[in-house]
Amino acid sequence: MKIETILAHAGLCTDSTTGAISTPIYQTATFRHPALGVSTGFDYSRTINPTRLALENVIAELESGDRGFAFASGMAAISAVLMMFKSGDHLIVSDDLYGGTYRIFEKSFRQFGLSVTYADTTDPGAVRDAVIPGKTRAVFIETPTNPLMKITDLEEAIEFAHQKGMLAVVDNTFMTPYLQRPLEFGADIVVHSGTKFLGGHNDVLAGAVVARSEELSERIGFIQNATGGVLGPQDSWLLLRGLKTLALRLEKQQENAQAVARWLDRNDKIKKVHYPGLPGHPGHSVQRKQSSGFGAMLSFRVPDASWAERIINRVKVITFAESLGGVESLITYPVRQTHGDIPVEMREKIGVTDDLLRLSVGIEHADDLICDLEQAMAAE
Ligand SMILES: *Cc1c(COP(=O)(O)O)cnc(C)c1O
Fold first, then answer.
1. What pTM, to 2 d.p., does this model score?
2. Domains and CATH numbers, the chain
């Protein structure tokens, strides 16, 4: 089946007892056993819950994986993946990445002996140089990166990781399986912040992990049950509900993003637009090769910090808030918000500076978004 159909049917008729069209919200912690040694297949909701299971099955199917696992947030999902490693292990991580991912490496996992090198994963030479023989166990890739929208060639990076006996983990939050499926390029694990495009309505926090092989699924499944950062039944249902319209939302969102990016690119007050859908973007052709679209995230550079502040304070249709991927357009100031925990030197090195704004483009009419930016930038 085509992905639009899988999405539209997310959670459809999973309850054979009643024939409910929509997967019921099984708001229960535990399940009655019919007799000693007999189970319905469900025993305790940390381990397995029917609503969460319906969601996990759809996510696994969408990402072409073996099994999916739903977590209480993207960070809970990423934590579960990091718990697969042990003290002494080393990871190579995209240097331009979600601030919370940086924070968890630096403030949480480093103290357990996990070490990390941040490298520009769009540059195969940089990845090669970062390998510590006998210690590097995985490459953790964000593509496009957050917030600079740099594109890593997945096929190349994954092949390199496997040559070196390392796992390839991809944070697929920005693209979603509708546009990009890293497991089909051989990646071992995909992680998601379901809070973003998968949920799509800025109303639920969620995370997901999809593993490619049975062996990896066993390991992630063990960690999910043992550590318990699971997604609750209500929130699992909200994610199923959101997924149904993912294809429609993303089509509209990326059409709007393309229009906004083109308008910004033509505007002589804007120094730079980072959107892989613009032909001049350095990752444009790689993105074309590995994804079926360019997504709805972009960032742009204004003349200076006072401009950034003015736009943030004056937008009316676009909302100034953290997060992304929802039907409502949001503008974010990475240096002060999502990337505030990244040290200044590292931010400057990668280019996350005070003239950079990030835009998550929603499903509004593109003209309204453009007019809003125009009035926000106009002289007082
Ligand atoms: C938001 C985000 C996360 C973290 O997800 P939460 O649901 O906020 O915990 C991880 N990676 C990327 C790329 C994100 O945008």
1. 0.97
2. 3-243 (3.40.640.10), 246-377 (3.90.1150.10)
